[in-house]
C-alpha cells in the first residue's frame, strides 16, 4: 500500500484521519533547401504553403487538427546541459516558473541581429509607454533596458535553432544613479528536438522557435509579443499542458527517482461536482517508484526487447501507471479520478499546470521535458 497524503477541497474544510488526510551573437539559424519568392501578407497563408511537404509526410491536410503526441519517447537521462549552457542563463531558466505559449515560425529572424533587436524592442516599449500602454507595468517615468542573448548548448539536433533569451530591466527615474536596474520581465524562445520533417519543409526565410516562455509583468509581455508579431510576421497563442502531457511528465519524472530523488509525486485533480471538487493527491516517492517499476517489469514480461526498448517509455506504460494511482485512491475514498481532469503535477524535478505554467527544477533532466513541450507547441499551431 502507498503511503499517501490526499486532500479534497470543497469550500468548507473538514479533517478526517485514516492514514490519509481528507479536507473539503553569430550562431546558426538553420537554413533549408526550399526557396521562397516573397513574403506573404498573411502569415497563415505562408504557413499553410510551407506545410505542403510536411503535411504529406505526416499524413496531414491543412486545417486538420486531429494530431497527437508521440506514443513512445526516450526515458529522461542526465544531460550535460550545465556544462554547455552559461551558468547565469541556466539559473534563470531553472529557478523561474514560466507561462508557456506557442509561436509560429519567425520570418527573416536572424540570430546575428540580436543587438539590433534589443535596440528596436527597447524603442518599441518606449513608444508604447508614451502612449500609455505600459503605465500599468511600471511607473510612467521608468526607463527600460532590453537585452537579447543566445543560450548556446540547448539544441539537440542540427535542425534545431539556438535558444534566444530576452530580458527587460527597469529602473525608476527617481532611483539613484548607483542603484542597479531590476529585472522586470524575462522570456525565451526555443526548439528542442523539433520534428525534422516539418523543420526541413520551412522556406529558408523562416526560423522555427515554437516554444515561448515568459515571466514578469504581463503588460511588458504583451508588448514583447506585439513587437515580434509586427517584426517577424508571426503569431502567439496560449499553450496549455494537456492531460496527456501531464501524465507523460509524471511517468518521465518518476522514472528518474533512483538517480535524482523526486521527493514526492503530487497531483491536483478536478472532479465534476457543484461546486467542483478539487483533489490534491500526494504519493510517497518510494511508493510511486515501486508502482512504476512494476509497470516496467510487466513490459519486460510481455517480451519487451533489447536495450533500445528499455530506454523508451510508451503510452501504454504511462496509462498503466496512472491507472494504478487512480485505483489506489479509489480503494481509500471511493472517488473515481477518471471522472475528473488532471490539472497539475509536481515533483522535485519540476511542476506543470494545465493552464500552461511550467517550472523545471533540475537542469540535468530538462532536455526531455523541453522536447515534450516543443512537440506540444508544434501540434498546437494552426495549420
Automatic annotation (TrEMBL):
Pfam families, A to Z: CENP-L
Localisation per UniProt entry: Chromosome, Centromere; Nucleus
Region forming the signal peptide: 1-26
Keywords on record: Centromere, Chromosome, Nucleus, Signal
Entry annotated with the keyword Transmembrane helix: no
InterPro entries for this protein: CENP-L (IPR025204)
One GO CC term, this protein: nucleus
Family the UniProt entry places it in: Belongs to the CENP-L/IML3 family.
Protein name: Centromere protein L
Organism expressing this protein natively: Cyclopterus lumpus (Lumpsucker)
Amino acid at each position: 500500500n502507498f503511503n499517501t497524503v490526499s486532500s479534497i477541497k470543497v469550500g468548507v474544510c473538514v479533517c478526517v484521519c485514516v492514514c490519509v488526510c481528507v479536507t473539503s551573437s553569430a550562431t546558426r539559424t538553420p537554413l533549408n533547401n526550399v526557396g521562397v519568392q516573397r513574403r506573404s501578407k498573411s502569415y497563415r497563408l505562408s504557413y499553410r504553403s510551407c506545410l505542403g511537404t510536411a503535411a504529406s509526410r505526416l499524413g496531414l491536410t491543412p486545417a486538420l487538427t486531429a494530431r497527437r503526441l508521440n506514443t513512445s519517447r526516450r526515458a529522461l537521462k542526465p544531460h550535460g546541459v550545465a556544462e554547455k549552457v552559461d551558468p547565469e542563463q541556466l539559473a534563470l531558466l531553472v529557478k523561474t516558473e514560466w507561462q508557456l505559449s506557442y509561436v509560429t515560425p519567425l520570418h527573416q529572424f536572424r540570430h546575428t541581429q540580436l543587438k539590433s533587436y534589443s535596440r528596436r524592442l527597447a524603442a518599441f516599449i518606449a513608444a508604447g509607454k508614451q502612449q500609455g500602454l505600459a503605465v500599468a507595468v511600471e511607473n510612467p517615468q521608468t526607463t527600460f533596458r532590453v537585452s537579447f542573448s543566445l543560450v548556446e548548448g540547448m539544441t539537440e539536433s542540427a535542425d534545431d535553432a539556438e535558444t534566444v533569451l530576452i530580458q527587460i530591466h527597469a529602473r525608476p527615474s527617481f532611483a539613484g544613479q548607483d542603484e542597479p536596474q531590476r529585472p522586470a520581465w524575462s522570456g525565451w524562445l526555443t526548439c528542442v528536438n523539433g520534428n525534422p520533417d516539418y523543420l526541413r519543409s520551412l522556406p529558408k526565410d523562416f526560423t522555427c522557435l515554437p516554444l515561448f516562455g515568459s515571466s514578469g509583468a504581463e503588460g511588458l509581455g504583451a508588448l514583447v509579443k506585439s513587437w515580434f508579431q509586427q517584426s517577424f510576421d508571426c503569431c502567439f497563442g496560449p499553450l496549455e499542458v494537456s492531460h496527456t502531457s501531464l501524465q507523460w511528465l509524471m511517468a518521465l519524472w518518476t522514472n528518474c527517482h533512483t538517480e535524482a530523488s523526486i521527493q514526492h509525486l503530487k497531483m491536483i485533480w478536478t472532479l465534476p461536482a457543484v461546486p467542483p471538487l478539487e483533489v490534491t493527491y500526494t504519493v510517497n516517492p518510494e511508493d510511486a517508484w515501486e508502482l512504476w517499476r512494476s509497470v516496467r517489469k510487466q513490459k519486460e514480461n510481455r517480451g519487451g526487447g533489447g536495450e533500445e526498448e528499455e530506454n523508451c517509455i510508451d503510452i501504454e506504460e504511462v496509462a498503466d501507471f496512472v491507472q494504478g494511482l487512480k485505483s489506489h485512491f479509489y480503494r481509500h475514498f471511493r472517488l473515481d479520478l477518471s471522472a475528473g481532469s488532471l490539472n497539475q503535477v509536481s515533483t522535485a524535478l519540476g511542476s506543470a499546470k494545465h493552464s500552461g505554467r511550467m517550472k523545471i527544477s533540475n537542469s540535468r533532466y530538462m532536455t526531455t521535458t523541453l522536447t515534450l513541450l516543443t512537440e506540444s507547441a508544434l501540434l498546437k499551431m494552426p495549420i
